[in-house]
Amino acid sequence: MSLVIVGSVAFDTIQTPETRRERIIGGSCTYSALAASYFTRPRIVAVVGEDFPKPTADFLKKRGVDLKGLTVVPRGKTFFWEGRYGDDPNQRDTVRLDLNVFRDFRPTLPSSYRDPDILFLANIGPGLQEHVLSQVKKPRIVAMDTIRHYIESEPEALERVLQRTDIFFANDEEARLMTGELNLIRAGRRLVERGPRLVVLKKGEHGAFVFGRHWLFGIMAHPCDRVVDPTGAGDSFAGAFLGFLDRAGTLRSPAVRKAAVYGSVLASFTIEDFGIERFKTMKPADVEGRFAALKKLVSV
Amino acid sequence: MSLVIVGSVAFDTIQTPETRRERIIGGSCTYSALAASYFTRPRIVAVVGEDFPKPTADFLKKRGVDLKGLTVVPRGKTFFWEGRYGDDPNQRDTVRLDLNVFRDFRPTLPSSYRDPDILFLANIGPGLQEHVLSQVKKPRIVAMDTIRHYIESEPEALERVLQRTDIFFANDEEARLMTGELNLIRAGRRLVERGPRLVVLKKGEHGAFVFGRHWLFGIMAHPCDRVVDPTGAGDSFAGAFLGFLDRAGTLRSPAVRKAAVYGSVLASFTIEDFGIERFKTMKPADVEGRFAALKKLVSV
């Protein structure tokens, strides 16, 4: 089993209705790799500047994350994002975005990464996603995420990647934008028709749907009575989902259902603290405990 | 087993983004009784005018609804509501409201109604709900719904009824308003602390939570790829939920979970057509089929 994740590692400044945190660690690759690390040993491909803290790299390694594909640009500055949340944790505004070293990022996969079981193309541009795809031998499973910016600015390239994708992640807004369908059930079905074997439609606090070609699974979000920082919930969902599937070695429905429950569980931990803080205290037994609780919560 | 429902029977004019329908049959009592009729023989207490169509009364009777408590006011006009939906089916505006015979409605229960297993006080004012409670022998289970109007205008009376309630239904907006909690999990827990044994928190297209004293159940809405008219979804949920519990004769968690799934199922049928139209074609086997499908959809 092997999972390669290509995405962003970042400094985030987070403003919530209650608190502000400056330059904490974030990024799609960071969150998804940490979530996946509870199930497999993810390998990441990303870029940072010299300002990236060694303790964070050490923590990622301690969690079993392979950093061979993490490029450190001498004298470079790490990607920076500042976001602000209002009372609705599903809504956020980007206050500031400095691409820094991410601007010239042309991911090159170490040779040991070029034959993965699962390749996860996280929130990088579709052009870069194609560039990564060209470097790998036929991976067993290609997973892909995107953001509104690329749906609007590079729809053709995005569509080409989508056609080579087995598992596509989208949130409700992105699914509506890509299909022109307000109804999420119709939007999910339309996306499955465009290529992927699975479409994972994330609805934030309302849970997620997984659309297969001929079946549908729905999981609620694990109930959270105090959302501290919603950042990284979607990436944590994707990382746990793919990490579990990498360990399971199958895309059959029973494994996919479990994967989505783990996705919901890891997302629910992430939002309990700022940035990646919660990963520092969360034990495998905590994950299993919450998996059992969520399974019980939805069982009829 | 016996279920008595006190609420409104109405003419509704419905404007959706696509269609307008004038003066079709609606009302909380109508929807909840029809939904309950798939599980038990509900008795209704409501008022209509002379304009109320005989074919509708005949249809209710055919579905096993006991109309002994339905008062027809000579020369009176039936309660009228006009609502408009935008693209989001969870949001609606009231365009017009004519109380008509509902203005002087003082529900009097037929003697055969005064010892129910379950008494459902639907969307009538808390003063009327207390008036009804004063007429019944100690019912095994009191269920209650309300609307924003009464939460804002009669909070003290509402609180008194809540303290005598076993099962309280609220939608997300009402739960937030009653507790001052934006977070729905906290709002649900707060409501349980105020008296009810069960709080059913309806989230429209996102499903529902049922809060017990020491447990929580979550059910997704049955996926619907074409919402024709969202009116009556919440009332259908409540009616099916209580109808099933009346048949089951227990408030233990396994029965309550099934009841909520049936609630979600009946709501999903209601919104597939205008007003109560869908009840005219829906067979018990359709209900069972969708129950099985929804159970499968959420099963891990």
Task: Give structural attributes.
homodimer; 300 residues; alpha/beta; UDP-N-acetylmuramoyl-L-alanine:D-glutamate ligase; 9-stranded mixed β-sheet; 4-stranded mixed β-sheet; 10 helices; 36% helix; globular
Explain what this protein looks like in three dimensions.
Chain A is α/β, with parallel strands linked by helices. Chain A has one domain (3-298): 3-Layer(aba) Sandwich (UDP-N-acetylmuramoyl-L-alanine:D-glutamate ligase). Chain A has helices at residues 28-36, 54-62, 126-133, 148-153, 155-163, 172-179, 184-193, 233-248, 253-270, 284-298, and strands spanning 3-6, 10-15, 20-26, 43-49, 66-73, 80-85, 92-98, 118-121, 141-144, 167-171, 198-202, 208-211, 216-219. In chain A, the strands form two sheets. Chain A has a nine-stranded mixed β-sheet, with helices on both faces. In chain A, strands 3-2-6-7 form a four-stranded mixed β-sheet. The first copy, chain A, is globular and about 55 Å long. The mean pLDDT of chain A is 96. The A-B interface holds A 87, 182-186, 189, 203, 205-207, 209, 216-220, 223-227, 257-258, 261, 295, 297-300 and B 87, 182-186, 189, 203, 205-207, 209, 216-220, 223-227, 257-258, 261, 295, 297-300.
